[in-house]
Structure formats: C-alpha cells, structure tokens
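Consider the following assembly input.
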Amino acid sequence: MFDYTVITNNIGLLWQGLLMTLYFTVITIGAGMLIGLFIGLIQLSTFKPLVILGQVYVEFFRNIPLLVTLLWVYYAFPIFAGINVTKFWAGFIGLSCYVGSFYAEILRAGVQSVDPGQTDAATAIGMSYGQRMRRIILPQAFRKMIPPLAGQSIIQMKNTTLLSMITVPDLLYQASYISSFTYRPMEVYTAVGVIFLIILVPLTLLSRKLEKSGSLK
Amino acid sequence: MSASDAIAREAGAVTDKSDKPVLRLDGICLKFGDKRVLNGIDLSVVEGEVVVLIGASGSGKTSLLRCINLLNVPTSGSIVIDDETLFDRQADGKGAQIPAQEVNRIRSKTGMVFQQFNLFPHMTALENVMEGPVIVKKEPKEQARQKALQLLDLMGLAQHVEKYPRQLSGGQQQRVAIARAMAMQPKVMLFDEPTSALDPELVGEVMKAMVELARSGMTMVIVTHELGFAFEVADRVVFLDQGLVAEQGPPAEVLLHPEHPRLKSFVGRFHESADLLRPFLEAREAEKAC
C-alpha cells in the first residue's frame, strides 16, 4: 500500500529540493518587497504618468498566469531580446515581479487606508513628503498590511513550485524526478504536501499573532 | 509665575500687542473643481491678536484656515507669514514659485489644531510632541524631550506623557495636540473647530487651555461655533459668508449688533438656543433659592 521507503530512501533529494524552494521563497519575497515598495509609492504619487505606469505594471503581472510569465522570461527573453538568462535568474525575475505586483497593491491599499488627517497633521508641523511617509504614514500602514502581506507570502511559497516547469530543481521538481524512477507518485507528492503543511501552518499562526498584537498598538 | 506667562515664555511670544502683521492674506481664492469656495479673502492678523472665524457650514471658514498653511492650495492669492512669502499666485497664473523645502519651513511657523485631534496613534503623548522638533527642526532629543515635558505639564498632562492617544480622553488628546503644535514655537496658532468633536463635558478643559494661550500673547486664528468663547477671548470676529468676509469687528459689535442680514440670523440662532435654555436655568435658580 503506502510505501514509506520511497521517501526515506530519497530523503536527500527531497531535502535538496526543500532548500531550493525555501531559498527561492526568501529571495523572491525580499526582491518582491522592494519592487512592491517602489511600485506602490509610484502609484501613490501625484504625478499622473507615474501612477499609470504603476497601474500598468500591477495589472500586467497580476493578471498573467505566473506560469506564462516564467516560461516567457525563460524562453522568450533570449529569443526576442537576445539576452540569455539562466533558469535561476528567470525564476528569480519572474517570481519577484509577480509577487511584487501583489505587494504593491497591498501597500497602496494600506497607505490609502490611513486617515488623511494624519497627513494633514504631519504636514502642518512642517514635515516633508519623505518624513511623512517614513515617520507617520508607513508605520501605521504596515501594521494594517501584516495580514495580507503574510497571506501573499504564504501563497508565494506555494507558487515557487512552478519553478519545476523551467527545470529549477525545487521540491516539486525533485518529487517528479523521484517518482519517475520509483513509480510511486502518490507517496512522493503526499510527502511534498506534508512538508508544505509543516512549514506554512506555523507561519500562518505566527501571522495571526502578529495581526493581533499589531491591532492592539 | 502663572501658567500663561510660562506658555508665553515657551512660545517666545510677545505679550504686548503690536501693529506688526504676523499673517497677511491677500485675495485668497479657492476652487474645488467647479465649486468656488473662497472668493477673494483679505485678512491681516497682527502679533498677539486673537481672530475668530465664524459662519454657517459651507461658508468656507475651515477651507480658509487650511489655506493659511497650504493644506488647501489656493487657486490664487498670496500668503505672507512673519514677513516671508509662503504662497503667491496671481489670477493670471503668474507669481513666485516657492520651493517645497521653503514651503515646509515657513509652514512650520504656524501650528495647527484639528477637529479630530489627528494625534499620531503609534506614538505616546510625549513622542507626539517631540516629533516635530526632533524630525523637522533636528533638535537634540534630550532638549526636545525637556521642552515637550514642560509643554505637556502646562497643558495639565504631566501624568499622561507615556500614554498612547487611545488611552486618553478626547479633551486630553486635544490638549496633547495643542502641545504638539506649540512645540514648533509657531508664530501663529490655527484652530479648526477644536471642540466640535468633544463630549460636552470635555469642552471646558480645552477652552481653558486656549484661553491661557490667548492670554499669554499667542497669535491665534480660530474657527469655532462657540460664540461665547469668541465673545470672551477674541479681539476680532470675522464672519464669512459664501467665501467672502461679510462683516468683521470687535466681538461685542459683531455678535451683539450684527448688520449683515445673514449674520443677524446666524447670531439669532445662537440667541434662540440660549433663550430656549433660559426657563430651565431660571427654574434651577429658583430651586436653589428654595
């Protein structure tokens, strides 16, 4: 029936895959946050062309399936732009741009949900735009942004599984590799599911806790 | 040393009223889209003067107040604060371009107190008051802290300096807001209906703080519906109607002998509500006498 030895015998491969998945999760969330901050602030500016540019970015990456974006960066970039990208860079760029568009929207909504009276008060004591954002608006916005940011980041970890489609050896790629020579896909993919559960459930609980302590402040 | 003297010293204000205008508005026009809110307002406020703006809702008094520190940017007109031009744009679009940095600097010569307090909720009362001096004026933290503690003490909040806004009553929050504005040592204080959002029993403590401030020689421009306060404290009452100054003068003149028909009905409503209360007050007096 359920053959555990398939997993125990190949635990090394799964471990390598997990490290790759975690690695991509962390670096694309980091880069995505920077992109999101940049695009989010662009959308919040008063200069119309910048606002539109930000919106175009967000709608572009949010509405194209991630798989298409990844394949496009990996296969089409070299053909049309003549730039050769390794699969690692392609995965990094595709995933970061994708999650960045969601973060940008979260940031924009978070900032816009801060009472405009706060901007008035900060402006009235002579603060510049940068000082207002850094000292008054963003700290308040970030608190409201914790739950959606955590949610999006959890989705991001699951989205990294699409990397296997451009042959990055992540957890899912290793799983399909293992099942290709053991012929036991059920055990292997169940193990992958359990690994994701073990990592993401505690993170979800942590974000709930943060949300509570954030709303108290 | 009385509290008001101390505030005067803090603010660096001059106790004697002089003729030097601290604030001069010329031909302020303001449009929101097609809606004309202000239609050319001239107003000059001298050092130590307390000016109260009154008018029906929609008459433009809050908009005018927000124009003084450019929270609303006028369509045209000019604003001079303490001999420095904050804004200058003629009707034909010509005028001096003032860089944003300068605008922020000159703007901080005004202190503003809002109807909804607008304290920074993620900071304690003390941090709220220190924020301007430390971040905008780059004062050393310890110095700003001492000054902030002094101001909060003057506002009767010595016991609440470490509390967050949500732990304070509306009246206390508004007094923190006054201290926050005062910490920038403004030349003129702007009050936008400072007691309108307060429970009735909390209005008094904020009024008291404002009276002290006025007695200390602070220059103040106040939008309020508290005509009693205007009568007691104002040097001049300005009645706005349809975005224009319809009538102005000493409070006794404007409030007791209004000439403009709209001002008559505006003040009339105030007298009416006072009249409505009279029987109750008299009944209470009678009860006391028994």
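The longest helix of chain A spans residues 11-44. Ask yourself how this observation constrains the way the partners meet.
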